Amino acid sequence: MKKVNPILLSAIAASALLGGCVSRGNNPGWEYAPDMYYSKGYEPYSQADSSALNPHGMSMRTPAVGSVAVGKGEFVYPYENNGAGYELAGAELTRPEGLTDPNGRGEYLYGIYCAPCHGATGNNDGAVFQKAANLKPAWKGYTDPYIKTLPVGKIYHTLTYGKNNMGSHASVLAPADRWRVIDYVKQLSMPTASAPVAESADNAATEMESAN
Ligand code: HEC
Q1: For residue 135, which atom of ligand 1 is closest to its CA?
Q2: What CATH architecture does domain 78-211 belong to?
């Protein structure tokens, strides 16, 4: 008689054993200490069949459409993602009063999210624009009159929704940070009015030389 393959035999035995534990539908099979899986207290997102009042037995109901979480009012943005919304934002939106810029946060965030395209000083010479010049906007850099005179509300709208080749930055910049970055863009667009970036770099170099 032919010998039975021992590997095959153990595979059959194992599947017969494990088969007893396989869950079917909502039945999880054997559970040890179910209290560890199913909390006795109400948990908003995990209790799926405890409440007699809510749909599907959920502990928490889905918030009503348009609800805003407490303290998240600044995320409400009433302007639509179209030309009319852009114009309205430009006409109505203003920088929040009393906004501070702790530790040069605007400049810091600009370096992370904007410089790769627009360049460290806003000359549209970042690594991306150097490689793909076809992506560049028509204006030459932030010192272009277009950016100098561009209403901050329009810039905020562009940061929120994106514009053509520039993507939305809403997921990486909270509203207050968008305004901080806009402050920095305006600072770069008028280098003579405030600290000129290139000059301060020169100063740093001179200081280092004199220290040596
Ligand atoms: C992927 C490259 C890219 C990145 C990253 C990027 N931009 Fe842009 N940006 C563009 C392009 C392209 C345009 C031109 C859009 C158009 O008008 O077609 C533009 C336009 C703008 C404008 C003019 C907006 C307007 O309403 O006309 C401003 C201001 C600006 N960017 C600032 C920023 C800031 C601030 C950041 C960082 C938060 C940033 N950009 C990140 C590519 C980029």
Answers
A1: 12
A2: Orthogonal Bundle (1.10)
